[in-house]
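Troubleshooting: if your tokenizer reports a length mismatch, compare your output against this known-good record of 196 residues.
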Amino acid sequence: MCCSVGFARSLGLALLPLALCCILANLLLLFPMGEITYIQQGRLASYIWYFGGLGGGGLLMLIPAVVFITLGKCSCCWNESLMMCGSVLAAVVGLVGSGYCFVISGFTLVQGPQCFTQLGWSYPFADQGGRYLLQPETWSQCLQPVHIVEWNVTLLCVLLGLAVLEFIICLLQLGNGLVNAVCRPCCYKQEYSLNA
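Known-good structure output:
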């Protein structure tokens, strides 16, 4: 068993808590301040329903995490190059999932929350292109749910950060897997020719 497999396993172990945190952050977005009334009334930001953290950064990220962790467990089934090719495919799935989480979280952050203002239920920050993020004094125009802007901004920033970390981890494994899938057979051929 080579060190590249151990490296992949450690990357998989790092992905697991990140994926679980993405799932948790997305679930918290569905229940502002822990209340279920807003989800029942359909008063959540539209992009929250795309489940960037739950689907992309969470459940989809479990695929590469499990593949990376289980690399080399079945030594009778795969040779090392095929095993690394499988990890490359899993890394690509992870890149897609983390990218999806990042994009959806970014769109949701730019759009701002749906909240009750003096004019009724609306998206008061939707036409600002995210400038409201730099103007916390405007956040008080959202009367209900209380502190919804802070709630969404915090959780969406967490999702953005987690997505970046997941992307970096999957990119590392993509490089690790490609180098080992391509270079490993060449190295073994040279060893055999030297020993012959």
